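Sequence design from tokenized structure. All designs in this work follow the same two-part layout: the structure record, then the generated sequence. An example of the structure record is given first.
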């Protein structure tokens, strides 16, 4: 909850003063002057000393005081990034996942679930982005340097009180540069006043507890004046020649007055929103002028605005909540010929830049300095008069239509994706698949055998799962009361032969694209023992595991994996380039999904996508027609396809099991659909007649969808499974 923006609204018009770098002893002296005040506020002397010991200044936060995106980014860019298809889909998934919790919270505080989840989505991308800056260091620096020191001193002391009281743990606590943190980014003083214990464990923990975070957000909105059952606002259409000076959040008129001025809903009809008293007052918003979208907003908009006092921010929350309820989004066009890009389009733009040889790291949808410089270079090459480096629709359209000077490589992969066998790989392959670290003492976590393979077993209130030590391979995921989502071969071969079934991790290459026979197929990590590095159980019983394969000699890439096992299963592969040069790689989470009959299931979400067929040696691109199934007349009874530029959401429909399996992905540009069919399976000792019992749908970056990772950069591939009745 970035309440510091209240004072920024006034301060941003002032020239920022040049701040000399404060040495360490200046920070130490400054903190020493705060100790008496801290003691008066109930912070123990021992706690203050312990929590401030060793703090160093981080002067890089000072320029950010005048660079808030809410005030410096065009609204069409700001909303395109925050209210894109990915955030809408993820938000709807969270509404379903936390349905019972949100129903309870909504009943208690009177705030609807869509608004609560929209705040969560905009503030931290549903818990994915908390901020990377050490919280104590940032607030200590801002308390002793720059402008508005009294404000940040209050926030620092509030944080110290929370830490000293045991609500939070200081170790590893990070947030935004200005001190907001947790799932819904509360400032410490707001946390102290508003946070509630949503899971009943006696603590208010907005970092580790989703129930605490969502209940606290609802509590804030309720205290800010939220009116149950009323809308926040509605998009409207202005009559010709409308007087734009009447707009402004504080210039309120009765609905009848706006109606008399000729304002109507964008879809036509009466100006009478459902749930709103007929005599209600409303304000007109024209954030981009009279030629852009217009809204009438009501008291609930003010409650959202109070969360972070910026018009663009409040509109992001409001319009995302509408999308989560099934609304169509903003109807009117922005007054620009170059609208913003959502994350899917940003990734496409970055892929086009990579194909032109720009070393920008991974195509992750995050527009940083390297990407902006690459855009600027392409704008200059295209002869644009003002090459500003902005990621917009205009440059994306231009690069789509202009082939690169060096064409995107076709399969087989270029030599940059070829890896030599690490010198220590054989030693790990021959090692027994036994845990390399002690089992963490976490409720619901145990070590045992699954079909003869040593595995970490997980039991939660919502599902059970098993992950093999050998290969870090998901072997089983069983939703409560349901069937196993994963297929595991009943004739899987003894170790160190890779395990057939579950979810093998194929990394840092997929298949033998460009690789020789001197290395194992599908990468280096599926036939070595992994280590369970960390395990924790969330308040609702969801289990989170962090695992990693051994570090491999001469390989500049490092891999780690996180699994979240609960109502859904989420798997994240994080690749880091620890070397000094860019590295290109491919990868896949090679899912074997259990089905009732592979010949009878179908997969939605692939219609219209291009694919390459292994049975044709990937020679020709084809276009998918309708849903995928083994009944495809072009190639019936078998499949081995790489779908490129894939969309990230697929649904496996299984009439025999009467279930739908929804697979959503991020950081994945490819989907591999594979089943060898009867003839192919007969040649495989660990498949045989089992081919009818599985379908492989693999979240991947494979074929031409190569990931090029700059030195020091990371790439994350995410997949989530959700099971529902068919």
């Amino acid at each position: 909850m970035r309440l510091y923006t209240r004072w920024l609204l006034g301060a941003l018009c002032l020239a920022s003063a040049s701040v000399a770098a404060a040495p360490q002893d200046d920070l130490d002296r400054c903190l020493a002057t705060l100790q008496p005040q801290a003691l008066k506020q109930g912070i123990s002397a021992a706690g203050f000393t312990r929590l401030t010991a060793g703090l160093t200044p981080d002067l890089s936060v000072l320029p950010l005081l005048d660079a808030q995106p809410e005030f410096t980014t065009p609204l069409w860019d700001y909303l395109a990034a925050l209210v894109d298809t990915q955030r809408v889909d993820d938000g709807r998934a969270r509404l379903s996942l936390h349905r019972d919790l949100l129903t309870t919270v909504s009943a208690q505080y009177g705030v609807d679930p869509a608004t609560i989840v929209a705040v969560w989505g905009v503030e931290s991308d549903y818990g994915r982005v908390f901020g990377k800056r050490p919280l104590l260091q940032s607030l200590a620096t801002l308390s002793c340097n720059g402008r508005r020191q009294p404000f940040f001193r209050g926030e620092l002391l509030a944080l110290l009180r929370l830490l000293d009281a045991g609500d939070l743990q200081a170790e590893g606590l990070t947030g935004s540069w200005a001190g907001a943190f947790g799932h819904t980014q509360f400032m410490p003083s707001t946390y102290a006043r508003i946070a509630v214990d949503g899971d009943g464990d006696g603590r208010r923990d907005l970092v580790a507890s989703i129930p605490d975070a969502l209940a606290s957000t609802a509590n804030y909105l309720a205290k800010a004046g939220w009116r149950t059952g009323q809308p926040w606002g509605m998009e409207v259409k202005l009559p010709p020649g409308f007087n734009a000076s009447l707009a402004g959040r504080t210039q309120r008129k009765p609905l009848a007055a706006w109606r008399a001025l000729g304002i109507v809903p964008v879809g036509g009809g009466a100006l009478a929103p459902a749930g709103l008293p007929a005599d209600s007052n409303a304000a007109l918003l024209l954030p981009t002028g009279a030629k852009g979208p217009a809204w009438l907003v009501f008291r609930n908009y003010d409650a959202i605005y109070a969360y972070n006092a910026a018009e663009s921010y409040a509109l992001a929350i409001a319009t995302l909540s509408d999308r989560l309820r099934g609304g169509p989004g903003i109807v009117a066009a922005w007054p620009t010929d170059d609208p913003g890009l959502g994350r899917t389009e940003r990734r496409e733009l970055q892929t086009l830049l990579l194909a032109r040889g720009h070393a920008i790291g991974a195509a992750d949808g995050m527009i940083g300095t390297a990407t902006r410089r690459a855009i600027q270079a392409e704008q200059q090459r295209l002869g644009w008069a003002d090459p500003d480096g902005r990621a917009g629709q205009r440059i994306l359209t231009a690069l789509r239509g202009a082939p690169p000077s060096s064409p995107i490589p076709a399969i087989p992969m270029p030599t940059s994706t070829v890896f030599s066998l690490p010198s220590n790989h054989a030693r790990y392959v021959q090692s027994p698949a036994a845990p390399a670290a002690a089992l963490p003492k976490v409720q619901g976590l145990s070590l045992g055998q699954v079909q003869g393979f040593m595995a970490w077993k997980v039991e939660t209130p919502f599902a059970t799962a098993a992950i093999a030590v050998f290969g870090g391979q998901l072997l089983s995921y069983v939703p409560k009361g349901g069937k196993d989502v994963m297929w595991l071969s009943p004739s899987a071969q003894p170790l160190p032969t890779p395990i057939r079934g579950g979810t093998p991790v194929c990394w840092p290459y997929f298949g033998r694209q460009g690789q020789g026979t001197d290395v194992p197929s599908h990468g280096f990590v599926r036939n070595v023992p992994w280590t369970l590095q960390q395990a924790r159980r969330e308040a609702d019983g969801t289990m989170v595991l962090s695992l990693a394969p051994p570090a491999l000699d001469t390989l500049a890439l490092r891999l780690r994996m996180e699994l979240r096992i609960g109502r859904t299963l989420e798997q994240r592969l994080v690749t880091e380039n620890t070397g000094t040069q860019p590295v290109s790689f491919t990868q896949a989470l090679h899912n074997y999904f259990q089905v009732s009959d592979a010949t009878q299931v179908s997969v939605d979400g692939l219609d219209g996508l291009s694919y390459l067929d292994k049975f044709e040696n990937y020679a020709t691109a084809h276009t998918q027609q309708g849903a995928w199934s083994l009944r495809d007349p072009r190639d019936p009874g078998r499949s081995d396809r790489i779908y490129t530029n894939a969309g990230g959401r697929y649904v496996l429909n299984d009439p025999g099991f009467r279930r739908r399996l929804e697979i959503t992905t991020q950081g994945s540009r490819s989907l591999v659909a594979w089943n060898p069919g009867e003839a192919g399976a007969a040649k495989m000792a660990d498949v045989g007649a089992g081919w009818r019992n599985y379908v492989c749908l693999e979240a991947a970056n494979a074929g031409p969808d190569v990931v090029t990772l700059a030195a020091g950069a990371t790439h994350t591939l995410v997949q989530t499974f959700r099971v529902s009745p068919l």
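The longest strand covers residues 714-725. We note this feature because it recurs in several other targets discussed in the main text.
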